[in-house]
Amino acid sequence: MSTTEFELVIGDKNYSSWSLRPWLLMRQAGIPFREIPIRLRQEDTKAQILAHAPAGQVPALKWRDVVIGDSLAICETMADLFPAKNLWPADSVARAVARSAAAEMHSGFQDLRRDMPMAVLERHPGEGHSEGALANARRVIGIWRGARVRFGRQMAQDQGFLFGRFGVADAMYAPVVTRFQTYGVDLAALGDDGTAQAYMEAILTLPAMRDWIEGAAAEEKAKAASQGHSGAGL
């Protein structure tokens, strides 16, 4: 597949949790694509997105004259197109559990999403710690520990991820890792025995994850410079 066969339309790297998921999966898996960034929360944001994606949402994958929306659908597409990359576990039981975990992330944890929105460059310790958000966080920690103990640690080449190797389930939970860091969530107080903390470190030290965070910083710097320039003549 050529370098330009895939085009991924994404939102701001500091804030767009759904964009992070397929971007991280594709970058970490070494699947080449052209990135099309859309600045969010602007008057023309919707029009810019609609120029690429009929659903009017990011992320969107442009491939072979079709547009694939939704983070999980894009990740599933990559797993189908690149089976040798093992983006889902090979074992059928592990794969079923990984799909279940990814689907729960996709449709659940509404309190956590609302009260601790992704902001990878920011630090707001103690904020957003509503009862519902912390209950969601406790459930996430349980999912991570269950996957690591039963599957990840049993892999002959365990790399510290939920099912041993980095895959779709990890990409789906990566934004939660950043949320826990941004809002200073006390993992131990929510039942972590060190497993969740170690998993967070594995995600945050991924080369692709570091690239995303550096990209977010560059975007925010460019925004600040643009705003400063636009106000220079006032």
In short:
The protein is α+β, with helices and mostly antiparallel strands and 234 residues long.
Provide the residue-averaged pLDDT: 95
The Cα radius of gyration reads: 18 Å
- SSE pattern: EHEHEEHHHHHHH
- In the predicted model, the low-confidence regions spanning at least 5 consecutive residues are none
Straight-line distance between termini: 50 Å
By CATH, the topology of the largest domain is Glutathione S-transferase Yfyf (Class Pi), Chain A, domain 2
The CATH class assignment of the largest domain is Mainly Alpha
Oligomer: single chain
**Number of continuous helical runs:** 9
Strand content: 5-15%
Shape: globular
Query: How many structural domains does the protein architecture include?
Result: 2
Give the name of the CATH architecture of the largest domain: Up-down Bundle
The structure class reads: alpha+beta
Characterize the main sheet.
Answer: 4 strands, mixed
The percent range for helix content is: 40-55%
Q: What is the total tally of β strands?
A: 4
What attributes characterize this protein structure?
Glutaredoxin, Glutathione S-transferase Yfyf (Class Pi), Chain A, domain 2, 2 domains, 9 helices
